[in-house]
Known about the structure:
single chain, CATH 2.40.50.140, nine-stranded mixed β-sheet, 9 strands, 30% strand, disordered N terminus
Amino acid sequence: MTRPPIIALLSLALLSPALAQPPGTGGGGPQARIASKTARFTSVKRTEKRFKDSLEAANLAAATSRKGKTASFHGKVARVFSPQSGRVVILNFHEDYKKAVVAVVQKENFPAFPDLKPLEGKEVLISGEVTLYQERPQVVLRKPDQVWLVE
């Protein structure tokens, strides 16, 4: 068996940085590979009722009290993370994920969403069922109409 020349491999890595990153580091990840090419997030203005009625993502007490209910939260996405398992994508609303609500997209819902990685650094509003994972609140996202870009 012949091996491809090292130059070809380096070129591939430079041209496709997502391929050069190890799994779980966010270089496109499993969700990006099967993301919808047509789905889009809509936007919401800060003056709209939907935004005004939402809670700050850092309000953990309010989030925890809404366990089992639908609630809306807004905040800046600090990190889009996919663990090694590749079974979930997590939107962290704080560099220390324990200090704010997180939003979770399960693998079976990956194809419904556009690539989630570009949400990093953007302010968004999310709405969905609040569940607890390891005693911390998370919002389960099943479809893209649960995410709005804040204008």
